[in-house]
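Shape matters. As here.
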Amino acid sequence: MTVPTGRRERKKAATRQKIADTALRLFLERGYDAVGIRDVAAEADVAVTTLFSHFASKEALVFEQDEDFEQRLTQAVTGRAPHEPLIPALRREIHALVRHCTADSAAPIWRLIDGSPVLREYEESMRLRHAESLATAIAADPYLSQTTTACRTIARFVIDAYSLAREAADPEAAVDEIFRMIEAAWEVACPSRNSTTGTAGP
């Protein structure tokens, strides 16, 4: 039997998705600047206050999977086995994110983003936030012994790998190429007892 809280959460998630889908459709049909928050709310048949309870800004409507991507990146660190190497775990997640964002269905969305200075600026701030969250997760790992600077640097490299690979002619190959460099940087940053895996020694 489903508890009421579960039903409420599902209803909230459905409303959020409906708003995001409606906004994206309007942005693609009319252009980002030509569509206002009230237009989206009216088309989605919700109040403006309801829209803002799900999305903090108009820009956030375009990046509705922002929080999911951020969680996936941090969980690549926190969800791995205690002695599983860090860099391969991050590489797998970046591969998955790049595949998602280079699918044919994503192309119109990226054209929309690339054509809007406001959305490009929002994406940049979003990537910086993701990098900080990832750095925090790496720094908190009990099996890794790194300075704050090393954690932030590797996190920035990982986030940049996603952006660079997404724009490459062969995104999959680009991820692998970039992560070879990231792994080399991690080796340099790791204390000798951590070895190249980024895990604590026995």
Q: What stands out?
A: Confidence is low (pLDDT under 50) at residues 192-202. Residues 4-30 form the longest helix (27 residues). Residues 21 and 61 are 9 Å apart (CA to CA). The chain is about 75% helix and 0% strand.
